[in-house]
Amino acid sequence: MKQVLSPALIALAAVLALSGPAAAISQKAETPPVEKAPASADAYADYQRGEFKSAFTKASDLAAKGDIAAQTLLGLLYHQGLGTKRDDAMAIEWYSKAALAGDREAQFALGLMIARGEGTEKDPAKAAGWFQAAADQGHLEAHYNLALIYVAGDGVPQDLEKAAQLLAFGAERGHAESQYNLGALYADGRGVPKDMERAAYYIGLAAAQRMPAAEVEYALMVLRGDGMPKDENKARSIFKSAAERGNVVAQNRLARMLAVGMGGDADPIEAVKWHLIARRAGMVDGWLDGFIASLSKEQEAEARKRAQDYVAPAQR
Q1: What's the DSSP call for residue 281?
Q2: Tens digits of per-residue pLDDT, 84-126?
Q3: pLDDT in the model for residue 316
Q4: Long-range contacts: 160-166, Cβ < 8 Å, 24+?
Q5: For an engineered disulfide with 223, which of 60, 212, 235, 257 has Cβ 3.0 to 4.6 Å away?
Q6: Can you give the residue ranges of every domain in the chain?
Q7: Considering the domain 159-230 in this protein, what is its CATH number?
Q8: The model's pTM
Q9: What CATH number matches the domain at 41-156, 1.10.275.10, 1.10.300.10, 1.10.10.10, 1.25.40.10?
C-alpha cells in the first residue's frame, strides 16, 4: 500500500481567443499568469529519481519552514530509511505535522504506522480516525484500510454495512483488493444481502487484475457454478493462466484437474509437473504425492524435467 507522491506541475500556458465570429477585429484574451511550482517540487523530483540524500536535505529544510508537502515527504524518507537512517519516531513526528495540516497522504501514512504500531503504540481506533480523515478527502487506500478495521471490529465497533460502503468506493474505482473483499461480503451476505452474481462480478473484476487470491476464488466459483453457469473448461483455463504466472494455489488446483481429467483431457505428466512446481514453493498435497506413483518411470522423468525447466516469472 505504498504511495508515491507526485510534485505539482506547472500551470497551463497562455492561450489566444477571438472575441466572436461576427467581430471585425480579433482580440487577445488575457494571458493567465504562470504558477510557480511549489518549493517542495525539487525535493519530490529528487525522490522520484532515487536521489534520496538530496531529497532528504531539501525536504528537511523546507519542512522546518512549514512546507506541508515537504513534511509528508520527510516522514516518508524517515519511515523508509531513504537518504537517512530509518527512524519511525521521526516519521511519526513529521507525518503528524502534515496530517494535522490536512495532507491526506500524511493522514493515510500516519494511520498505517499507528495501525501497525510503528514508532508509536498500536492503536486501531486512532488509526481509524486518520484513515477516515484521508478517506473524507477521497483517498482510495484509506477507504480500503478503514473498511478492514470495520470488518474486524478492531478498535471500533464492527460495522459490516459501513465496511461494504467503503469497499464499494474502491471497487467502483478499480481497486482490486476492494473488489475482492466486497465480493466476499456479497458471497457471505455480510453487510449486504447475499448475492452470488454480484459476488462473482466483483471477484471476477479483481481476478482480471491478476490478484492471486481472486484468481483462485473466481476459478472455483466458475467450477462450482456460483453466481454463473458452471464451466469446468473455463475454470481450468483460469487456473492455468494463473499457474503460469506463479500462483502456487492455482498450480495445485490445475494439477488436480489435469490428474483426473476435469475441464479437459487428463494429462498425468502435466499434472505431476505442476504438482512438483507447487510443492517446490511449499504447497503440500498428499493425494498428488501418491498420484506420482501411477506414472511410468518415463512419464515421471518427463514431468520432473518439465518442472525443473519451469522458471517463475519473478526469476525470468
Answers
A1: T
A2: 999 999 999 999 999 999 999 999 999 999 999 999 999 999 9
A3: 56
A4: 160/185, 160/190, 160/191, 160/192, 161/191, 161/192, 162/191, 163/191, 164/190, 164/191, 164/192, 166/135
A5: 235
A6: 41-156, 159-230, 251-311
A7: 1.25.40.10
A8: 0.83
A9: 1.25.40.10
